[in-house]
Amino acid sequence: MSEMNSQTVLQLKALAKNLGLRGYSRLRKAELIEMIEESTNDDVRRTSKDDVQRPIDLISFGGEVLKPMNVVVEERVGGALLDEPIPENEVVNKQKIILKPTKYTKPTKATKKTKKIDKTVEWGKQKVEDWGKWLKEKNIKVLFVLRCNMSKTNPAEDEVKLDLAYFLSPVEAIFQETDREDVYQTCVEKMIESLETFIRNGSNWVVDSVAGLDLHTVEYNPLKGSSYIKLPPDIAKKNAIVNMKNEDDQCFKWCVTRALNPVGKNHADRVTKILKEHAKKLVWTGIEFPMEVKDIHRFEKMNPGITVNVYMYDYELKTLRVSKFKISNTHIDLLFITEGEKTHYCLIKSMSRLISSQLSKAKNKKYICRRCLNYFGTQKLLDIHSELCEKHEAVREKVPQPETSIIFKNYYKKVDVPFVIYADFESIIKPLHSSQPYPEKCYTEKKQLHIPVSFCYYIKCSFDDTHSKKVVYTAKSEDEDLAQIFVNMLEKEVKAIHKDYPPKKMIFTNNDVEIFKNATCCWLCEKEFTEKDKKVRDHCHYTGKFRGAAHNSCNLKNRRPRFTPVIFHNLANYDAHLFIKNLGVTEGDIDCIPNNEEKYISFTKKIVVDTFFDEKKNENVDVKRELRFIDSFKFMASKLEDLVKNLVKKDNTLENTGKYHTGEKLELLKRKGEFPYEWFDSYHKLDETELPPSEKWFSSLSGHGITEEGSCHSHKVWKTFEMKTFRDYLKLYNESDVLLLADVFEKFRKVCKKKTSKG
User: Fold this and answer.
1) Is the pLDDT reported for residue 448 higher than 50?
2) What share of the chain is helix, strand, coil (3-state, %, to 5)?
3) Is the CB of residue 695 less than 8 Å from the CB of residue 465?
4) Given this structure, which CATH class describes domain 233-365?
5) What domain of life is recorded for the organism (predicted)?
6) pLDDT tens digits, one per residue of 286-311
7) What is the CA radius of gyration of the chain?
8) Which of 341, 291, 333 is nearest to 312 (CA)?
């Protein structure tokens, strides 16, 4: 009990999830502990009608790795969790066991923390082999939990915070023929990956010691299909199933064979001599009947071109098994049904009829995705969806119940921000050959030094595109501080916007009078006017143009924005590191939304753009505006190259790029350019008069070099734009990246607004 009390609510919820419990999401800590304890006291716990799991044992390996000890463990009572913390280096079982782990010497090398984990992992591996000997006759599911003592130093207050963190493996099913070593290795890799993610996102947390390695096991009765079972009435009436009337345990074989050899409506469910002859054409070597769901992949491997999905019906159709192979033309859908302890496969001959009423009230035929059970009105739409669906794990979308969704209310945010800045840096990449300074400590190996050598920003004006402008700046010498120049120029731009575009009074024409008079709904929220929230005139404060009739409350919220977004693609991982320190050189508050100590989701810099005298306070007051730095990758998590390809495929017009380039030049820029990042390791290479050879374009980040097509494209760009030096190529590459980002993100904004607008 005391061990669970030390866990956080999130940790308890994670444990509840992996135990297969339901209804834990809204429980408090005490309720979660009670639920978990009750679940472990049950003799039998059911996760579904067909999947019975019985608690067997909790095994704990490890303890403080540097202090192994011998422990005698008493018999476990009733299968419940122990009231006291599990002793170090123990196995809990229904018999007394003494473990004698080998002595572990404290390491002195840099990998000390890692070796603590590695030692526990290797030791745990031996214990898993021992555990496998007395569980070898059982089918089980396992969950490993790595417990680590973590520490975090707060330099400001000179204190160290300690906490116990839990890193869970995925739940793995183990059968008699399963290679337990492979399963253990998979679980370890997932736990280590979880640990690394925690450290990376945990704001200075480090592993102090390993508290233990726990193993949770439950008995698992896998699903398998056998002899004939009568269909439930609500399924039978849909006329969507062929229920094979077999008296043996080979219903899977007869369903698959019938799917490949369909007959008329009459007697399709009979196992005939002809059907048995057809079955011999398939490979069944090594297949045991009744067929378990987990063994279907073996059948697919031996019969290439055939894919099988399995579903179950519990008031609605649910996916039980999705083929790991690409859905083929010879695809078979099976329904798994139960009656008491009996189980049976049936052939689904019409997925549309079976699931139609579950998806929609419409009577027309539906084209259903076999992976996620989403449906579409035409085969063409399904094919488009399938291309994307096959790249991801099979997940079915479930529409929220009415009145449970969050409703968009900030209608004033539908109005475009008047100015948006798109920006990007290019750098010289100098290789570093550093040695480890402190062998006894953890450290980061520095491999490259990135020195900004060029930047480009594009100011996009939403109300008048003639006010949009592009700036490209390339270093004039190796000593220039490009990051500071960039920050200074942005601050000047914000001050100029405030000065050059003062608020304008409304221009209200006779036509506008009629529009306002006849309006019955607010143009912002699209709701009707009321006595409490009356109709007023709304106008653009930059142009003075009348925009429409609005609620008084909507109009008051629709003010001139006090910030200018600055958008980079992959800001958090790259560009921010180049200039964020320079924001603090000049006066102005800096705020951020951190992801961890090194990465920021977004950050802002306040800039004084004007001052005025406040007579009431009898003092000068600063007028401030914000530079708000945003990462477009957080909205569109793909490489810019892929985003541009997708945009050009759907909409061949590049509005912003097309302002500066036309004809053949524009056609060449309708894809992201190529750049020899690691070859460009010196400022002097800006003066090179030709592009480097193909072998110099290799990137260790991507792991590959330039393709023949990419090389031809780069040389064609050089020739078409009449470039003299690599400086020209760098400037165009930098400029095109920014303009393409503007095209992609502006399109993204328009699509989002269109999709979320009413109606």
Assistant:
1) yes
2) 35, 25, 40
3) no
4) alpha beta
5) Eukaryota
6) 888 888 888 898 899 999 989 999 98
7) 33
8) 333
